[in-house]
Amino acid sequence: MIDQPIPFLTHFAQVTDPRVDRTKRYSLPDILFLCVCAVLCGADDCVSIAEFGQYRYQWLTQFTSFGDDIPSHDTISRVLSLLDPQEFEQAFVAWVAAIQSKSGGQIVAIDGKTMRRTFDAATGQKAIHMVSAWGSANGLVLGQVKTDEKSNEITAIPKLLEMLDIAGCTITIDAMGTQKDIAQQIIDKEADYVLPVKDNHPNLRADIEAFFERAIAGRWKDEHDEPIAHSSNTTFDADHGRSETRKCLCTDVLDDILDAKAWKGLRTIARIETQRTINGKTSTECRYYISSLSPKAKRINQAVRTHWGVENNLHWVLDVAFDEDRCRTRKNSGAEIRAALNRIAINLCKADTTKKIGIKNKRKAAGWNPEYLTTLIKGAKI
C-alpha cells in the first residue's frame, strides 16, 4: 500500500461509522475511497461501484486495506444509507475550503435542484431536493443541504449559509431566497447580496418598479430638475442564432422605497432589462433587484448573469455527465450521500488542469487510464 494520504479522505476521517464493530469487515474510509473513485470513472449506482472495485482491485490496493475481495453492492448501499448526512456535509465543506484558494469578492450562487427519480410512490416519499452553493471563481461546489420533505429552500438556505465561510463574497439566490432573515444572515457573515424582487414581495417590487419608471421618464431628473445619481451597464452576447442585450440601471437613492430599512444592509436597487432575439423573434423582460453592494451597475449586472452559470456549470453537468436525474437511490440518507459523491467528483475534476477537456470526458479518461485516476484523486489546490 502507498503510504500517502489522499487529501479528500483526511477530511472525511471524522465521519462516524454507523456500523457496530463486529460488522466492520471493510473500513469506512476504504469504502468511501472506492465510491469516489468509482463515481469518478462513471459509476452511477452501487452495483457499478462494486463492479468497478472488482476490475480495479489491484489499483485500489495501492491505497486501501482491502483484503482478498471488494465489498458487495449491498454492503456499499447499506453503509451509504446509514451515514449521517450532516456530518458528511460538514466534512465536504471542510475539504472544499482546504482545496480552494479563497477569492475575495467571488460570486457564490445558491440554487436548488431536484433529483427527480428519488421519489417513492409506495411510501409517499417525495423526490429529494438539494440546495447547493456554487463558487464562480473556481467553479467548485462549496456545499449542499437537502430541503426538509415538508418544507422548501427557505429553510435549507440558512443551514447552508451557516456552514460556509462566505466573508467577502457576493451571494446570489433566486426569488424564493429573497427573505429579510436571509439578507441579515448574509450581512452578519460579512458578505454581500444581490437578490431578485418578484411577486412574493409585491409592495417592495411595486416601489422599485415605480421609481425606475419615473426616473427613466424624467431622464433621471427629480421634481426640482436635479440629477438623480445612478449608473448603467449594457452587455451584449450572440451565439447560435440567439442574441441577448442586458441593460442594468442602479441607484442608491432609496427615499421612495418604503420597506428599504427593513432589509439589513440594503444599499442599492437595480433594474435589468433583457432583450432576447431567438430565430428572429424578440422578447423583452424587466427584473428588479436589491443589493448590499455599492451602486455600480457593471458589478451587479455581472453578479446576476453569473448566478445563472450554476445551471450550466453544475445542474447541467449533474444531469448530463452524472445522469443524476435518473438516480433511484431512496433509502434513508443514501440519495444525499450519492449527491455529495457526485459533487466530490465534480470538484476533483475541476481541480485538475492537466487535461483541457470537459468533466464527462475526464470521467471517461479516469476509467480508461489508472494513472489519470491517480492524478484526480490526489487533487490539487486551486
Describe the 3D structure:
- With 382 residues, the protein is α+β, with helices and mostly antiparallel strands.
- Among the domains are: 131 residues, no CATH class; 109 residues, no CATH class.
- The chain has 14 helices and nine strands.
- The chain has a nine-stranded mixed beta sheet, sandwiched between helices.
- Strand 4, helix 8 and strand 5 form a beta-alpha-beta unit.
- Helix 2 packs across helix 12, helix 5 packs across helix 12 and helix 13 packs across helix 14.
- The longest helix is centred in the C-terminal third of the chain and has 18 residues.
- 40% of the residues are buried.
- The model has no long low-confidence stretch (mean pLDDT 87).
Could you outline the blueprint of secondary structure elements for this entry?
Layout: H1 7-12, H2 28-40, H3 46-55, H4 57-60, H5 73-82, H6 85-99, E1 107-115, E2 128-135, E3 140-146, H7 153-163, E4 170-173, H8 180-188, E5 192-197, H9 202-217, E6 231-239, E7 242-251, E8 268-278, E9 281-291, H10 297-307, H11 309-320, H12 334-351, H13 359-368, H14 370-378
Parallel strand pairs: 1-4, 4-5
Antiparallel strand pairs: 1-2, 2-3, 5-9, 6-7, 7-8, 8-9
Features:
382 residues; 40% helix; nine-stranded mixed beta sheet; 20% strand
> How many helices does DSSP assign?
14
Helix content: 40-55%
Question: In total, how many beta strands?
Answer: 9
Radius of gyration computed on alpha carbons: 24 Å
Give the helix/strand class: alpha+beta
β-strand amount: 15-25%
H-E string? HHHHHHEEEHEHEHEEEEHHHHH
Order of strands across the biggest sheet? Answer: 3-2-1-4-5-9-8-7-6
